[in-house]
């Protein structure tokens, strides 16, 4: 808008100058005077009084559409004679608004109650306003995401970390570093949810917690036991370590706070931040949930699936995904003793599972060296890749980059769920086998734990550029953290609200409503919501003879009859269709159990 | 190679000095805010629990009367002033901010039956058992002078109620008939009678100011037009109505407090079915008063409790009771929509908050925003069973609780019996009578 304005202003003096030369007028013309020439009228967007010369009529005709347009847009002539070419708020692309869509619009046509209709209508306008305002606010976000583009003919996967470090500024460059810890490796790692703190746990008992931005160590110790997994809890004040036998909780100084003996032989852990639950899976086949706000075991589920060492959480709905040696992936919530869903994903054992931030896509990798992309909403396979050596570790970034650790290399893929990726986006090689990878939230950094220590790898475009300080703030102070902790604890989501569809709580519960209505009808002996029987209105002017009344009654009755017949016919058709289908299936013959593997 | 790596300057995100407020950059991207519905639900649950925690509606009790408080009147111009008349003929004027009685006068011998303030707020009228109508000045007399009424009208019969016109110098009394008085004269301008029974309450319509409604003890509610010589129409209910109150926002709506434990909201144009039957009290309803918004009303009952009903709902949203409060005879909703006053048998006037969990005093903007937000959340999730249960839960005295239970059982039995009768008789011979029609006997014009 500003650009447009300056352009028009820049043009005007030029026009005036030209006009002055061509016409020798004594009076000096100012640009704010009503311009007289044809030329300026077409160039400048101001409206003017049409003169009644004959020759102007053509021009008038020509100018009309523009005037009309300005009128439509509400363009007003201002004091200076300028016209606001873009009146009103700037339009926002539909795509941006779509991002803030939550569910479908209510169909007002189906609502018969007038009061409810009005209520829904106001609600819709409010929703629309909220959407556009959020989209408008999106334009003002301060940071832009990172990116990496190769030169012509250059693959981004050939670009080395050193080149990137050379190309970017010093602070960003310092985010690529190696920690050589070759004594107690290989290392597992975990970043806090704001991406500020890093926790490292070596297989042979070495635990280190650090503020990796400032590169300052918070604590370092050796637990003198083998370590299976490490996880930060809700803040950087506590972390859980799955040791050889039991689960331990330490504070950020390395002081042991708890030894949870109910949780034994834990191999993997996931922390559900909004529920304050620590989900663990053990070598004995148990999936256990620990509520860390009250220190109670919420659920212990015997999965009966042997040793569990492949685990991921769906950040969208807090469902735990477990991978099994028989190639299945099962989905669990703490409320059920059986899996919600069991998917056969691979023909060999599942090695790693991960789910993206939106909760739409699940990536699995198996011993068959395949990497598969599933849509978890429909449980459908989208793409399948073969990766050399297969991926032993997977991690999704906030911007949906996928990191796969294969042997001693880490490959980063872009848009795996959109289109089949031919080549990785980036590749990095470490000295020894990768043992753990995780993208750092809100940073373009991928943390890699391996046999020789820890590597922080720069992956441009991985992190969300603009954080929301009320959710996660990498720069939060101690006071802010304390405040946040209280707020977060107050709105701790109860574990029984963990379902496949977290938005279901905000929807209309038709089933209960119908059930309740049925019970009510049974109790009362009549239907209080039933449609009143049609009583024809008493019309004046002699139109209300008995015959006419009967006729009108009959009309309505027939309408109802017609509806009934229509319904029954439809039902019959449906039944016939189903029958035909089943017959067809029968003709095709018995399906064997092996058919499911057919591609 | 073109590359950009995310790099934030801490100066943009951390406050400059300790005296600044913290910077809170926002991003409304839904993927950064997962579980929004469950979290909102949790917030709503917390809000509703806090509402119940902070529900402390009782503010103060004004004592000083030496007999039960029979009637009360609001001052039309001053929020801090109310008047009350007791069963021993005493009238007291109270200052609510100081919670003190500012003036006491012995107005009548026997009960003060009715009390109303003139629309200008400078004087008030009382009627009592001694068959007089007295006009008093709001100003208290000098230290030497006696409490003397400005006017006294001696009538032939007992007056049981009085109400003043909202704009003109006219008032109406009721007793054996409804009388319309000019302030300047000592005989009524007009008298309305319909039937022979005594009339217990009369009320002017605040919008259509020449309309009047009255309740009489032969179970009628009669409507009058001041300009006409005869009453407009009446509706006969199954039992007697004690008082009625006009909706201050909708001219044609009024609510009557009935002896059969219910309140009936009528549209005066269609008296044959009430707009709503409000049931929850377990004893006769003695008084009713609308909130100035016309959205809710408060009712006082013989069951020692007061209840607040939304005008369009059949059940109360709130019930107030204390151990010491006896039969509540009169109730008023203050003109600023924030307080409720009730006068009861045991000589006290009690001040309650209209909204039980409201925080009194000036709210900080952030406090206000938080309250608005939680209000909206409560509204959004109000139908969820968990939240509904907490929002509806009220502690009731055992007497009311057991009585309500008993009545529920009785109602259920009656309904079941009717259902069985309908089932075993000829179809159509036992018609379905909706609850609204059950209590209306007839409408006479």
UniProtKB/TrEMBL annotation, chain A:
Limits of the BING4 C-terminal domain: 424-502
UniProt feature, compositional bias: Basic and acidic residues: 8-23, 30-58, 571-584
Region annotated Disordered, chain positions: 1-90, 534-558, 571-599
Record field: compositional bias (Basic residues): 59-75
Keyword Phosphoprotein annotated: yes
A biological process term (GO) from this entry: maturation of SSU-rRNA from tricistronic rRNA transcript (SSU-rRNA, 5.8S rRNA, LSU-rRNA)
Coiled-coil annotated residue ranges, if any: none
PROSITE patterns cross-referenced by the UniProt entry: WD_REPEATS_2
Subcellular location, principal: nucleus
Source superkingdom: Eukaryota
SMART domains: BING4CT, WD40
This protein's UniProt keywords: Nucleus, Phosphoprotein, Repeat, WD repeat
Localization annotation: Nucleus, Nucleolus
UniProt keyword annotation of Phosphoprotein present: yes
WD repeat copies, ranges: 343-384
One Gene Ontology CC term in the entry: small-subunit processome
Function: Scaffold component of the nucleolar structure. Required for localization of DDX21 and NCL to the granular compartment of the nucleolus. Part of the small subunit (SSU) processome, first precursor of the small eukaryotic ribosomal subunit. During the assembly of the SSU processome in the nucleolus, many ribosome biogenesis factors, an RNA chaperone and ribosomal proteins associate with the nascent pre-rRNA and work in concert to generate RNA folding, modifications, rearrangements and cleavage as well as targeted degradation of pre-ribosomal RNA by the RNA exosome.
Subunit structure: Part of the small subunit (SSU) processome, composed of more than 70 proteins and the RNA chaperone small nucleolar RNA (snoRNA) U3. Interacts with DDX21, NCL, NOP2 and EBNA1BP2.
Protein name from the UniProt record: WD repeat-containing protein 46
Organism: Geotrypetes seraphini (Gaboon caecilian)
UniProtKB/TrEMBL annotation, chain B:
Biological process annotations from GO: female gamete generation; maturation of SSU-rRNA from tricistronic rRNA transcript (SSU-rRNA, 5.8S rRNA, LSU-rRNA); protein ubiquitination
Single GO MF annotation: ubiquitin-like ligase-substrate adaptor activity
Keywords assigned by UniProt, alphabetized: Nucleus, Repeat, Ribonucleoprotein, Ribosome biogenesis, rRNA processing, Ubl conjugation pathway, WD repeat
Pfam families found in the cross-reference section: Sof1, WD40
Residue ranges of WD repeats: 62-104, 278-319, 321-362
Primary location: nucleus
CDD domains from the UniProt entry: WD40
Family: Belongs to the WD repeat DCAF13/WDSOF1 family.
Name under which the protein is recorded: DDB1- and CUL4-associated factor 13
Organism, as annotated: Geotrypetes seraphini (Gaboon caecilian)
